[in-house]
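Problem: given the chain below (98 residues), write out its structure.
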Amino acid sequence: MDPLLMPSDVLEASPSSVNNPETPAGPAPGDAVGEPPSVKLIVRLFVIPLFIVAAAVGVMFLISLLAGGTPSMEEALERLKSPGGNRTAEWLVGPGCR
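Solution.
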């Protein structure tokens, strides 16, 4: 297995030493190592995650609409004073469970 090259090894490599069997093979100093940013890369990095986040926020917004809005102070006090306990166990203690 060939050893991995360090960046300093790639910079030190010259066209004459690339063909030398004693030195590890690597790209010539003038060769581009990566590809330049393209539209495809920008779509993968930003647009697709934006759609995923927008879908998650939209689902949570719909769930919050179905659950109902925040009650006012008067509605909350009325619920607290009224007898309840339909959705709680009998062993729970509190004004809303009796």
